[in-house]
Amino acid sequence: MRLDTLIAIALVFIPFSLTSIGGGAAIVAGIQHETVTVHAWVNSREFLDLFAVSRAAPGPGMMLATVIGWKVAGWLGAFVATLALFVPSSLLCYSVFKLTNHHRDKKWHRAMREGLAPVGIGLIIAGVLSLFRLADGGITAFVIAGLSGAILYFAPRFPVLGVLALGGLAAMLASTLSTWVSAL
Amino acid sequence: MTSPVPASPLETPRLRSLFLLCFKIGVLSFGGGLSGWLYKEFVLSKRWIDEEDFSSSLAISQMLPGANVVNLVICMGEQLRGPVGALACVLGFLVGPFFAVVGLCQLFDALAGYPLLPVISDGVAFAAMGLLIIMCVHGVRRAMRFPPSIVTIAVTAILVGIFRFPLIPVACVIAPISVALAWRRI
Q1: Dihedral over alpha carbons A108, A110, A116, A120 (to 10 degrees)
Q2: Which residue range is the domain that position A113 belongs to?
């Protein structure tokens, strides 16, 4: 039973490892579909919490897989999910770097670089859309996401952790305000 | 530069130094901007890697699947110390965040009774979505130079994000088409 779960975790994350073009943000939509809808390992609420935790912790955003693995099957689950998500892409990157580094001025190398970039961006946009749908946070979600984006767009040196903390604070204030208003 | 003797001998780091430097960057890596940090350490401060090698490694890391920074430290580790170097870099980089993220998750669960926690967590998630939105804005602006790239972005985003087509088959179909378009243009 437990082994089955670990194998299932590996089977879910290995394919995502090889499709995370542009990084972990590109596979958020897919991971959400697999872990919430298909396998029902976590519910929407938990998924959103885990997403927030993985973004507030150090390391790449792909550590989302680590916390999902931990939630489903403890430390071993976290370990398996991490390996499943990082090993295939790392081996691919290692081999490609070793084999093609001498050809980086060749035409096919440039075509590959420039052709894959827009696919990665499209996938990130899809991830944002599915997170908004999942969060169902109405106007607060749009305002906080928009403001945090604007801060970091115009002040790229602003610490990311500060923006995340401000987001949490803003949501808290908005919720307190709306309780007051409805009490009046 | 194909001369048998390198003109300015860049220092070859010890495996332990590679591991420790990547550990430090990994555990302190909140949010983005990490390639800039790696550039500062590997190219400017330690002078282990030269400018051109760094930018070509960066391009490969970005176009391939996987976390960009992880791919980048793999390329630099391989270049400096071969396979063992790549392993030292990637392990050093990931071991800190692995324990940090699970630790934060446990802290989150310990505070679960606190009624405002889901509200705050939502706020953090919304702010994090803002980070993703900036990546999209930068990407779209870069793609403006070549209109078909905009179409690629839009089709991918609509199929996966709105019609909820499964991500992997969509990427496997669109990626080769997009590369072919880039090939014809160059």
Answers
A1: 160
A2: 2-136
**Which of A58, A89, A156 has the CB atom closest to B28's CB atom?**
A58
Domain boundary among A136, A153, A172: A136
Give me the interface pTM, i.e. the ipTM.
Answer: 0.81
Residues of chain B contacting A113 with CB distance shorter than 8 Å? 59-60, 62-63
Verify whether the Cβ–Cβ distance B68 to A53 is below 8 Å.
Answer: no
Please indicate, yes or no, whether residues A117 and A164 belong to a single structural domain of this protein. Answer: no
Mean per-residue pLDDT pooled into runs of 10, chain B (186 residues): 46 91 85 70 86 77 86 93 95 95 93 85 87 84 89 94 88 91 90
Give the 3-state DSSP-derived string for chain B, with helices as H, strands as E and coil as C: CCCCCCCCCCCCCCHHHHHHHHHHHHHCCCCCCHHHHHHHHHHHHCCCCCHHHHHHHHHHHHHCECCHHHHHHHHHHHHHHHHHHHHHHHHHHHHHHHHHHHHHHHHHHHCCCCCCHHHHHHHHHHHHHHHHHHHHHHHHHHHCCCHHHHHHHHHHHHHHHHCCCCHHHHHHHHHHHHHHHHHHHC
Q: Do B127 and A145 touch (CB under 8 A)?
A: yes
If asked whether residues A95 and A145 sit together in one domain, one would say no
Alpha-carbon distance of B185 to A154, in angstroms, equals 33
From chain B, the residues in CB contact with A121 under 8 A are 135-136, 139-140, 143, 153, 156
